[in-house]
Amino acid sequence: MASKLTLSQTFKRLSSTFTAKTAPSKTHFHAPIPDSAFPQGYLLTGLHAGVKKKAGVPDLGIILSTASRPASAAACFTRNAFKAAPVIVSEEVLIANKGKARAVVVNSGCANAVTGSEGLEDAWAMVRATDALLKPLQGEEGQKNETLVMSTGVIGQRLPIDKILAGISSQSLKTTASSSSPSSSTPSLGSNFDAWERAAKAFMTTDTFPKLRARTFSIGGKEYRMAGMDKGAGMIHPDMGPPRASTGQLHATLLGCVLTDAAISPRSLQSALTYAVDRSFNSISVDGDMSTNDTIIVLANGAAAGEGAKEIDEETDPEGYEVFKKELTEFTIDLAKLIVRDGEGATKFVTVNVQGAPTYADAHKVASRISTSALVKTALYGEDANWGRILAATGSIAISQDFIPSRVSVSFVPLDGSSPLPLLVNGEPRKVDEARASEIVSAEDFEIKVELGLGSESAQYWTCDFSYEYVRINGDYRT
Amino acid sequence: MASKLTLSQTFKRLSSTFTAKTAPSKTHFHAPIPDSAFPQGYLLTGLHAGVKKKAGVPDLGIILSTASRPASAAACFTRNAFKAAPVIVSEEVLIANKGKARAVVVNSGCANAVTGSEGLEDAWAMVRATDALLKPLQGEEGQKNETLVMSTGVIGQRLPIDKILAGISSQSLKTTASSSSPSSSTPSLGSNFDAWERAAKAFMTTDTFPKLRARTFSIGGKEYRMAGMDKGAGMIHPDMGPPRASTGQLHATLLGCVLTDAAISPRSLQSALTYAVDRSFNSISVDGDMSTNDTIIVLANGAAAGEGAKEIDEETDPEGYEVFKKELTEFTIDLAKLIVRDGEGATKFVTVNVQGAPTYADAHKVASRISTSALVKTALYGEDANWGRILAATGSIAISQDFIPSRVSVSFVPLDGSSPLPLLVNGEPRKVDEARASEIVSAEDFEIKVELGLGSESAQYWTCDFSYEYVRINGDYRT
């Protein structure tokens, strides 16, 4: 063995300066939304409780359903073995309440992950404090734990729980008529754009803009709304599934929340969400790292469905269910893409489209591998049409059938409507017009298309590049 | 969906300057080796054939065994589905010749990967041209294809084969008495340090120093030598296995070559190499990307064994075999570590030690996941004792048993003999002395130790950090 220590001690640190392309401004991806586009029956706020050091920055978000019935609730949680306390608690609440809930509370700045039994107590305390804001429903005085909880931020540090609880109890349903007045030091619950925006801001960690979208859709001639927010922007390679009872003793992040005023049964809401999450949040990668806290929650309070309206259900109303599922899937794809768009240090937004796979799972696996390759991602940053790295990444994993190199094709697809550029056709490299290749990869957005020639299944993935800025952000996150 | 194109077109590229810590100089990891330490019966050279643009830089290496018998030969090749032409050809040669060979030829600058049928022809031409340098052995005039071939560099471009063939045929066994004279423009074959060093230099791509080591060992009272070279420094996450007949129609990189003057049967040489490679080259990662060209070759020409000496063999001489296997494993670990040490842009050399796993494969899988996490690696670069990321990476994969969070411990182990620093003990985070943590992670070399508490198997992995320089090198590799 080389005498590592003695030699390493002689290392001399050199310092030099790189000129680095930084991420472009993305603030224009956030714009005002008309108040009428938001679903009915929700009150929201975002405020500075003191988890984050910087004064005034929102770090606590509260979302309440004010409908006269508990909302149907569904969620997908990280499959990481080391689930954070809020994940464990939210799973328990959802299971105990059979898919019903009335509130969501979220903090940013501290993930409450790997915080032992104290962390669990803190998460439960957030649930109880938020529950206390809710008006008891008729005949449900005994109902408890109607709040789902989410946290994001540094792992392994305890929450400043007193500050958070004080923040929660500063709110009251009595002040709900409108949003905060500019003179008020603590913004109150509201239902207009300002309130939704403040809640979205409370989700943010390294995000550069709040991620808030709204959508209107019709089922059976009736109009509904769906709105939601999410956040990234690092430790983003989610793999989330439906809630399950935790088996462990104890146990930064993707968080998202979708709210709708449609009425749908809890079981069908979960089923639609699981489908949607597989094709949206589980198909994005910023850095290939899966968080302990990833959580997507959806509430459907039925506020626009009218009293006594029948719930949408997969079995009794398959047609309505399919429409809802499609709307939810498209909406979650929109939200998921925003996370990649704002990936830490990202200068590119790249769609990886894998076709001709034997199964959807195979297509998804190949797309995921390409989307997480450090070499592919640095080439994207360098605007280098290095398709060899795409191929090497593809071939580095096993799928359900052997690859047949002579059937594989790779092309770059520009998104301005001009012709795709074939790079590899049936295993034989094309003489590439490098100027044209550069033209395509110098665009902000483009698509990498890989045809495997082994079947008819396809999958899409969305990824970004690996930049100097990513290294800077993550080399010094905690300080 | 957001209107991506219109929005992206409005992006404005910003430019800024980072002050970046660069990789320390590593040239002191290369030092002269006494001529007597090299195995007997080999002639080597390295020269500039013209694959690389820069004049004088070695890009062609030739290694010949001059023993009176063909050497036993073994190899491990990449498991990437898109094997480069030299990998396919070397596999064919090894299988056809039943584990015998007399030469190795290597070029750097172009990987001859994804080059179709022309690439295969080029690789065969390199084999034939190098074969022609060999003196026919008595009674083996008909012997053909005794050369194994390796290439490293850009994927998808054809070799400048005429330049390479001219380089090979510039060599001749007649000039073998000594190394090149300084006045000669083309260095000739030799057996001293200078010749070995030139061969090692011909392997290099983004490597900052030639990787050459030698080792002396005894079996049954007889002294043997082992020497070898390898190269990295990017697309390094090998998974190599023994040769197998190629099933595909067609098919930068880890290359390595170990030469010994011991006599060992081809089958036992392959068996020892497969064992050694799993614990050395298959246990390192620079960037998590598996190359199409990864190849480790070992030749054992028996030149120090004496005429008619019995070959070491797993069945007939298990004791000798175990010694040889141990020596080869330690030697390949030395060579593998050099690659991590010189990983593209690396400023750290980190050992990831996973203990308490149910199986070796589980331990290896966890160690690999930690070693490839972008967030762990950027934290290493930033000298941030962010153990939460280590835990998140661990929990993100499935192993043969469920993790039990309350049994998991993580610590940082300094290599200066001072006390390890526990960060997480049985699932509960310790109040960490951040100053002490910083002290440990600011060293060039240290160890991350993870105890899973699920069994008694362990595995080691070696990794480096993710730096600005890695992004710079790989954002602009081809230009």
UniProtKB/TrEMBL annotation, chains A, B:
Metabolic or biological pathway, per its Swiss-Prot or TrEMBL entry: Amino-acid biosynthesis; L-arginine biosynthesis; L-ornithine and N-acetyl-L-glutamate from L-glutamate and N(2)-acetyl-L-ornithine (cyclic): step 1/1; Amino-acid biosynthesis; L-arginine biosynthesis; N(2)-acetyl-L-ornithine from L-glutamate: step 1/4
Residues reported to bind substrate: T205, K231, T253, E344, N474, T479
Keyword tRNA processing assigned: no
Predominant location category: mitochondrion
Localization per Swiss-Prot or TrEMBL: Mitochondrion matrix
Subunit structure: Heterodimer of an alpha and a beta chain.
Protein name, per record: Arginine biosynthesis bifunctional protein ArgJ, mitochondrial
UniProt organism field: Cristinia sonorae
Upper lineage: Eukaryota, Fungi, Dikarya, Basidiomycota, Agaricomycotina
